[in-house]
Automatic annotation (TrEMBL):
It holds the Pfam family Peptidase_M17. Binds 2 manganese ions per subunit. Its cofactor is Mn(2+). The lineage of its organism: Bacteria, Bacillati, Actinomycetota, Actinomycetes, Kitasatosporales. This is Probable cytosol aminopeptidase. The keyword Transcription does not apply. Belongs to the peptidase M17 family. It catalyses: Release of an N-terminal amino acid, Xaa-|-Yaa-, in which Xaa is preferably Leu, but may be other amino acids including Pro although not Arg or Lys, and Yaa may be Pro. Amino acid amides and methyl esters are also readily hydrolyzed, but rates on arylamides are exceedingly low; Release of an N-terminal amino acid, preferentially leucine, but not glutamic or aspartic acids. Coiled coil: none annotated. Mn(2+) 1 binds at D280, D357, E359.
Amino acid sequence: MTALTLSTAGAATLRADALVVGVAKGVKGPVLAPGSEAVDKAFDGKLAAVLATLGATGAEGELTKLPAASGLKAPVVVAVGLGPVPDKEDAYDAEALRRAAGTAARALSGSKKAGFALPAGSVEDAAAVAEGALLGSYAFTAYQGGENKLAPKDAKDSGPKQPLAEVVLLGGKPRDKAYKAAVERALALVEEINRARDLINTPPNDLYPESFAAVATAAGKEHGVKVQVLDEKALVKGGFGGILGVGQGSANGPRLVKLAYTHPKAEKTLAFVGKGITYDSGGISLKPAGHNETMKCDMSGAAAVFAAVVTAARLGLKVNVTGWLALAENMPSGNATRPGDVLRMYSGKTVEVLNTDAEGRLVLGDALTRASEEKPDAIVDVATLTGAMVLALGNRTFGIMANDDAFRTSIHEIAEEVGEASWPMPLPADLRKGMDSPTADIANMGERMGGGLVAGLFLKEFVGEGIAWAHLDIAGPAFHEGAPYGYTPKGGTGSAVRTLVRLAERTADGDLG
């Protein structure tokens, strides 16, 4: 992964491949952001004018490269747009800084070293720049650049362009404990987000329940997280009918993975539950052509939970965090669950399966019940659960449902704080009747309209009495199919990891909403 350092060097004297400065959109043209003073001085105070001549405006996402002035050791200056000039000169929005740093880092892929002279006058600003630069530097190249045996022996295969190798954060205070802690936190957090992205992007022939469980086990050993893996025999013995029902059509058997991070001084316990469908064909209710190609991403919720638990352990947070990864591959075969079948869930409740492509709620139902048995202070599940949520909120915003309004509000505030777009959604009681079944206790489908809310109501049935619970439907932002933007790459994004980690931090500080 890209290296990150805090430097006392000035922008003018730093030897690097490029210097990154921020430019805001002013009424009369581009306005240089704090951090760019030394670079502007090398341009005789005319850097803003030069950028304007080149067509720069300072709009968010805009990027302009220009040769460096003679007074700079770096050969290239990269000016990145921050959006409108804030009311206060030093009050740049943290998310604007993240996105700008990410945009610059992506543009500098293939470079060895870049100095980021973006606003870093506060610990929060420095952390945002660090996060954005590291997230933007991400590239998934595991399946590219291998030896081509058909190529001539003397042919040069350059392989895929590698991400920016080193980010040097300028303008911070390397000897200040708060700055150092913020940078170390950013590094740990982004390393785990990028691990989640790697898992999401890994082809399903290589990532299936057993191999995902192996990754979790290895990470647990490395970071002091206890890992328990329930295989098919253990799931049968335990009566996990939801997970087994979804996974029974595949040659790759299902798993339920428990990750447990504990702190000796913790006073609260959080449980995170992740949907981990490593490939979703829809089962017997087969998805139509054009809807299968990205279904390796249907384990994004489990990847987020995994990353959040490991991050909590790496940060040593004073809170107990347990992660539950409900892993299965949803495939059609002679052994697959059929529409009309009835499954007995781990809770004892029976479910009539009307559509085998509504499988995520089945594996989550079992995991939610199992998590509830340990009586945590709160449960949050994360899932790429419904296309209905994408229709409601688009591709960049996840929905939040909960059995407690105050807890839902708290999760929403946390998500907005860390830069993850989200929106609180209701759980209308009248939609529950649509899941009544003449055969079982409940059906896995209800009314088509409000389908994302129906799914949330289904999950609510499996949460233990008196436990605060929230459901994050990340179907939109979990996997980005368009061109990269800001710090968001094409493919897996690691959506919800930052929200879960900040929730754990707040809980550790005694502020569980």
